[in-house]
Amino acid sequence: MSRFSALRAAAAAAAIASLVAACSSGQNTGAAPGSGGAAPKTGKLTIALLQKQGDQQYFVDEATGAKQKAQQLGNVDVKVIDLGTDANKAISQLDAVIAQKVDGIVIVVPDQQIGPQVIGAAKNAGIPLMAADDAIKDGTGQEAPFVGFDGTQMGNSVGTKAGELFKASGWSLSDTRVIESWKQDLQTCSDRVKGAEDAFKTATGGDLPQQIKIGTDNSVTDAQNKASAVLTSNQNVKHWLVWGCNDENETGVVTALQNGGVKPDNIIGVGLGAYLTCKDWRAGQDSGNKAALYIGGPAVGASAIQVMVDHLRNSKALPPKTIAHTEMVDKTNWQKSGLVCT
């Protein structure tokens, strides 16, 4: 195992206890859709992990955590499938793993609108299913068992930190703008952005600066390109606040501002993920990426496999929600958090 793999495994192991401990116990009034109910299984288990945007670092880490947990548990195979951003591919790959008779399914959907179809297909096949990262509902509005993060709480953390940094900067509302970038048809992202707005106002005891909302596909490239256009039409703005759905959005916008001539001292960017913001800190670069909420992809993947295996082997009910621990980091403390910056 490489040094990075070993560190990532250690970080996942440290976080898994808080993940499992955070499983909700107050919503077990009925079986969640996709939770299954078959007799315990013995022998080798095969669990399909279907992920949107599987090339993003967070999801790479999530898959790594899942595989490492499977190896630790023994006799468990994790089949990782990258869905990209294609909802049609998600359905076809789901059908494929169902046909292969996998024992369990964990899915990060590219589009939450396919939730009823995804849950229905797994239920009809008698295969337990969990949603990761983005919640999904069946046709009656009931959510599938979920592992990941609370979007509103994550946004609250980002907004609180941005508010603290804004107050310390001495900037005024009148000469500051907020760029918020996210995939606007994804409820998880909208929850995060709204949470950041509310928490910023609470932290500052006042209003938000004028907001500029950018719709993106949640990639660095799209965020950077669209922010560049925003800067062109806002040359007189002196100071910039930046936040969004993920590290890709925040770092893409910060890069666009800096490439456009805005000095890092005039940018307060607070990321969400920390796996990209940390690159400037590791390199010792002066950057507008001032802080980020560290979310542990490895721990989410590991937790999903642990919960699914407990269900399959020990008939433990799939918890309605398993919420992960998060931590705010910056250039002074990111290494102590267990974050592996690759």
TrEMBL record:
Ranges for domain Periplasmic binding protein: 47-314
Top-level taxon: Bacteria
Annotated localization: Cell envelope
Coiled coil: none
GO terms for biological process, alphabetical: L-arabinose transmembrane transport
Keywords from the UniProt entry: Signal
Secretion signal, residue range per the UniProt entry: 1-21
Keyword Signal: yes
Family matches, as Pfam families: Peripla_BP_4
Gene Ontology, cellular component aspect: outer membrane-bounded periplasmic space
Molecular function in Gene Ontology: carbohydrate binding
InterPro entries xref list: AraF, Bact_Solute-Bind_Prot2, Peripla_BP_I, SBP_2_dom
PANTHER family: ABC TRANSPORTER PERIPLASMIC-BINDING PROTEIN YPHF (PTHR30036:SF7), D-XYLOSE-BINDING PERIPLASMIC PROTEIN (PTHR30036)
Family, similarity comment: Belongs to the bacterial solute-binding protein 2 family.
Name of the protein in its database record: L-arabinose transport system substrate-binding protein
UniProt organism field: Labedaea rhizosphaerae
